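ESCALATION

Customer reports they have been waiting on this structure for their group meeting. Please prioritize. Original submission:
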Amino acid sequence: MKPLYFIFFLIIFPILLLGQEVTFTATPDVQRIIEDEYFTVTYSITNGNWTQFTPPQVRGLVQAGNPSQQSSTSIINGKATRSRSLVYNYKTKKAGKYIFKSATAIVNGKEMKTKPFTIEVVKGKKPSGNEEQNIEGQFYIRVEPSTTEARIGQQITVDYKLYTKIGIESYDMGEDPDYKGFYAQDIRRFSYRTTREEMNGEMYTTKIFKRVALYPQQAGLLTIEPLSLRLGVSQQTSGRRRSFFFNEVKYIPYVVDSVQINVKPFPTDSIPPNFSGAVGRYKMQASIDKRNMSTDDALTITMSIEGNGDLKRIQSPKLDLGEQFDVYDPSVLEEKSFEFEGEIQGRKIFEYQALPLEAGTYAIQPSFTYYNIDSSKFITLAVEPTTLNVKKGRKRKASSIVKKDEEAKTEFYPIKETTSLSEQGKFFFGSPLFWVLAALPFLVLSGAIVYRNQQIKNGSIDLTLLKSQQAQKVATEKLAQAESFMKENNSKGFYDEVSKASFGYVCDKLNIPLSELSKANVQEKLQSLHVTQQYIDDFIKIIKTCEMALFAGMDNSAAMQETYQNAKDVIVNIEQELIEKS
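Update from on-call: job pushed to the front of the queue and completed.
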């Protein structure tokens, strides 16, 4: 079977390569190097074959040995990549700058060239001759932020980078520094490979072992506090048994220096009125759910914002549709962050609801304003305008309905032409006993009210507790009224009563003043009482359904029945759960 697999590979693999971009690159492993050191240059061709290759000639450098060949093949998500490389080794002799001109190759019958680059050779320091006793001087760690000047909400990537000339077996980090004034988030996906770099006339092997994304939360000179860790350094054993094969690990404590970041505020006179609070690099997309509608319908606009700034600081962009639309506060459909190309990226999706007030043709063009860190300017992104056609709806205005009802009340009924009379006998009605019994309930009720008011005045009854205890009863009475409206097919009255019953219940039960009532406040309060999240979501969904029905209209009897049942169930569930936890 193996020959069949091999034949299948030979047939299918070239097909997978069709349409793939061909690249030809030259990559050195260093940019600065000291005298008498070695470095490599790798020439690679990807998704192609060369039939002729000519490397550049560089005077002053010695080529060490013959070039080695490497090749690799990978298939990821159906995308095939094949790479072939030649690796040249060079040795430096004299300080100076050496220019590598373009290498040339004939690839698929066409000539391709690499980009030229420069290698700088510098004079190195002479060895001390006693490196084992001065082991601490053979390595150090630097904190390398992507920038030392930033704006509030801008992402700063901070690398903790090891420079060493000896073997580091391990490192044990203690607690992370207290990043005061920053919001910090660890970055897990970045290049862990080792490289070689020249620093102060010496060559080091370097490696990034920790990367953090920092978002300044305030202006001023902020300090990244020192990081403490312990390094395990490999050493040969000393004494009589010293041998190349016997090494020991010496643990050395190390404290990384602190770094200061200058966070600049925005001048208040330069901030655009529609600035969303986003700082960094961003892109935006937006769409609407319909192109043709009537004044009876609601328009849904979705806006997706993606970038590398502090996602939490992004406020919903203002959606200016003019006076012909009622635009309601947007909801956040998605807010998530992810790692991409060594930094944190984020995506936030807003959903807007808008109601057209007049028929006509409108151009819908959502926009988003942010501060771009590359150009140091405020930039507004906008999508192409979308034409929206709005026609007049069929529903009559409330004023005309009221007027018609008033006219109906003034109509005269037909005159009765015949009638009958009968003598009234003596009945219990009107007797002294009747009046005593009729007045008795009112007397008892009045006495109870006076007694209750006296208790309230004396502080014997907690009004807040009383309202909380009767919250479900009051909500049930309002739902009963909503049910009667549902039977009359009065959608506006129905959804109004359901909304009052739901909001009234949480106001009384949770002791929330009416002036502070909002969906966010209710959700936060219920979560603090550890109410099941599903019940909270069902409650918020009912409130949103009522709002949309009151603003956009919803005459579907099945929808009213479902809303009514859901409202009853969620109030009962929340009441039962709060009682069990009290």
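Sent to customer with the following note: The domain at 16-122 is CATH 2.60.40.740 (Immunoglobulin-like).
Escalation resolved.
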